[in-house]
Amino acid sequence: MEDSIEMILQDYGRVLPTTKPHPVLSACTGALLTGLYGVWSLFALPGFSKIPWRLKVPYLPSSKDQTLNTMKLLEGRTGRLADLGSGDGRLVFAASSAGFQCTGFEINSILLAYARSKAQWTGVPFSQATFIKKDFWKTDLSKYNNVTAFLAPGVMETLGQKLMKELPDDARVIACRFPFPNWPHQSSAGTGLDQTWAYDISTVRSSLRNVSSTVV
Questions:
Q1: CA–CA dist 67, 73 (Å, integer)
Q2: Does the pLDDT of residue 11 top 80, yes or no?
Q3: Start-to-end C-alpha separation, the chain
Q4: Whole-angstrom Cα distance, residue 215 to residue 211?
Q5: In the prediction, which pLDDT does 24 show?
Q6: What is the band of 171 on the pLDDT scale with cuts at 50, 70, 90?
Q7: Rounded to 10 degrees, what is the CA torsion of 69, 51, 139, 41?
């Protein structure tokens, strides 16, 4: 979105003199930019006022390859899956089709409504794919043995601390694009922006305990 706005401004500067901008075109350009920002904010910002600033993450959809890589790392797994920040639900739908009982956590009302509507249109059973408007930071995730997260690098350490406290030993966590710092991963899939990492909580706990004992 920012790139699009910058291109509009560059085109505007080439067409019109920068010293005496035409008032009508100035007003139209301003209205266009305001509209573009408004549309973007509808998808990226709803619910942000309820989340601490350091934990805010704007909406960015998973790519097809990223979703496929996530499912590769979940092969052989079963049970309940939590998708943290489920967006339009694409990962939840992929996981539910593989037999997982999925819950998508999403605070964006528009994306939540879209995902719920798509679930109804496609006939996905409620028991297989549930989308809830709830802050996962304030939710106990101990009942899930699979967790997926495509968030932002600035929150991964804090998320890791939460998951270490709450998840059972047999849980697996999939991080999309941004890995957990200081966590040893079990495996990974893909490269670049589509890369995903799999972490087994029991292995992570054991590794961190060894590190702590070595430091002491």
A1: 10
A2: no
A3: 48
A4: 6
A5: 57
A6: very high
A7: -50
In terms of Cα–Cα distance, which of 42, 99, 66, 95 is closest to 177?
66
The two tokens of residue 154 are 């600035």
- Tokens 């694009």 found at: 177
Tell me: the pLDDT tens digits for 70-96?
A: 999 999 999 999 999 999 999 999 999
Q: How many helices (H) and strands (E) does the chain have?
A: 7, 7
What does residue 83 show for φ and ψ, rounded to 5 degrees? -105, 115
Single out the residue of 207, 198, 214 nearest to residue 147, CA to CA.
Answer: 198
Give the pLDDT score at 119. Answer: 96
Instruction: Reduce the DSSP state of residue 194 to 3 states and report it.
Output: helix
- State the Cα–Cα distance between residues 76 and 97, nearest whole angstrom: 14
Give the strand order in the sheet containing 196-200: 129-132, 101-105, 80-84, 146-149, 172-176, 196-200, 187-189
Which DSSP string do the residues of 78-137 spell out, in sequence order?
-SEEEEES-TTSHHHHHHHHTT-EEEEE---HHHHHHHHHHHHHTT--TTTEEEE---GG
